[in-house]
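> @MW can you paste both from yesterday?
MW: sure, first one:
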Amino acid sequence: LEQVRTINRESYTILNMSKELLLLARLRRIDAIEIHPLDMADIVKNAQTRLQGLKELQTVSIQIPSTWPSTEGHGTWVEEIWVSLLSNAIKYGLPQAPPFRIEIGAQKQPNATVRFWVRDFGPGISTALQEELFAPVAQLPQVQGQGISLHLVRYLVQRMGGEVGVISPVENTGTETPTETSAGSLFFFTLPEITAPYRPY
């Protein structure tokens, strides 16, 4: 039975890697993407809806800011990024005991960008693993289900003119506004800031 499970896991890994490579190949054939002002509140809401079953299973509280800085990007890609970061936080960033919560937010940066982040309060990520997270077709251990790989997250963000990264353990810098110090992990990505606020029609 254990051998069958091992074969199934390895088969899933190979299939997932193949899908990721095909998707990446298709994305690289796209010469230009449409960049628009983003309604980040609506994008995050859509990402949460896609993860509703997973969130309810884990009884996770996701703390969301009431307002968002104005940024621009490719909306579909940004939604995929949020789904990936949130699903990873729910599956791997929860502490052993409640309360089970995740914080997401945004902070304007001095270089005319906005840093968006997903912060968990789980066990954190080792330095060695952090160096591998964004490598091609890299996956967190036993990743299944929602979310594109972190390598694809990095690729999409870079195509939109931003950067990605992870901080673990999280320390209170006054920027990410965590409520505890030296705990959990914070995954972030940046997008260009725009000064005119987005007003949906």
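MW: second:
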Amino acid sequence: MTISLVTGGCGFIGSHIVDKLVKMNHKVIVIDDLSASENERFYYNDNATYHQKDISLDDCSSFFSDVDFVFHLAARSRIQPTVGTPNECFMVNVVGTQRALEWSRMNSIKKFVYSGTSSLYGNQNSIPFTPDMATDCLNPYSMSKWMGENICKLYSQLYNIDSVCLRYFNVYGPREPLKGQYAPVVGLFKRQARECKRMTIVGDGEQRRDFTYIDDIVSANIFAAKSDIEFGIYNIGTGVNYSINQIADFINGKRDYIDERPAEVRETLADISDTIRDLSWKPIYSLDEMILSY
């Protein structure tokens, strides 16, 4: 039986990956410290095994025994909160990643799939973003996730731990975080509209983002795990972007415009040609079709 381990497997993206792996008849082990404040709830699958541990502090080495694939999602994952608490961000996202890779090395796992971020492209790069561009980290979150990629590269080169780093572009879908003013924009706007509140648009609303549906993110992880890539960094997006005003138009609610925030990029757009070529993956879902489907 194939054994897969998912760190951060009780959260938005991780729980969907767990569900998919269970459907594929994998034995699934989940490590999650249940600390993500942005989650209204955590998600469980009756056919997976769960351990409440902090990978940056607790010894989790025994859970990696006989594991085939590691899907590493455990992280401090919101940009703005990490600006105020960088220590915790670097501890979990950098030290936690190194420890997960070390436990993977000790147990000779077949593939380490790392959940990265498109936010590390920053403002200096022109769209569409390609994985070979220089990074321009504007906040602790993007810096810590970029450092995690480099630790994956080191473990691949030095210890022959095959790893694939996936740079996600604005993930949305069922189970997306809804709490607080820093929730991802699709879930935030839908929550505000549902509660008959005005949607809060940062700046002029003409910022553009490449929005990626959760099922496409899950399939990218599966394709990465099955690939023969020894080390690679790949964009997971759609190659199409939308303005924040367009998102508000889709949801059709009233809106208020608020001041711009520091350390956020103006526009993102993924070049996924390498991803399609090397991982045999391509997105299926588009925002205009899916935004009101759940």
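> thanks! The longest strand covers residues 111-117.
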